[in-house]
Amino acid sequence: MNRNYRRWSLVAVLMVFLLGCTGTPDGVKPISGFELQRYLGTWYEIARLDHPFERGLSRITATYSLRDDGGVSVINRGFDSAERDWREAQGKAYFVDDPATGHLKVSFFGPFYASYVVIALDEDYRWALVSGPDRDYLWILSRSPKLAQPVIEQLVDQANDLGYATEQLIWVEQTAR
């Protein structure tokens, strides 16, 4: 009995952890009116908050396409200049709720999902501001390797107003050296 109790307790804690990773930061709302078909394709990472899984990479892109099961295939790619080689991670994403809401859960590691929250999106889908499940994750994405400075300033101001540590943003090199 004690062993079963511990096992179910562990499962319950794991479920709380996993469900918590697909939420949104307090006060941050995903956009409405999201159109997946328009979002598909390649996005260039303009800036991000630092994380080990992208550290040292330049020329980072994220490419989204439809999966046969209705989800989204995700391919993140970046150049590791120290190793002089490309690194790639393949994942999958699904809507958390309504497909018209820019809130997906993405997984690169089996059954473990984390939030992908589109918090700002250009009406022509030329740029996006994306958060993870908390304020430790933030990306500025663009359809082109460069983004106009006024747009960058607008997105940084919006992220700052939402409580993100914008002074810690890393600006991604998108050209070959």
Notes on the protein architecture:
The protein has helices spanning 2-20, 36-39, 149-161, and strands at residues 41-48, 57-66, 72-80, 85-95, 103-109, 112-121, 127-131, 138-142, 170-171. By secondary structure, the protein is α+β, with helices and mostly antiparallel strands. It has one domain: Beta Barrel (Lipocalin). Strands 1-2-3-4-5-6-7-8 form an eight-stranded antiparallel barrel. The radius of gyration is 17 Å and the shape is globular. Mean pLDDT is 89; it is low at 1-20. Involved in the storage or transport of lipids necessary for membrane maintenance under stressful conditions. Displays a binding preference for lysophospholipids. It comes from Fluctibacter halophilus.
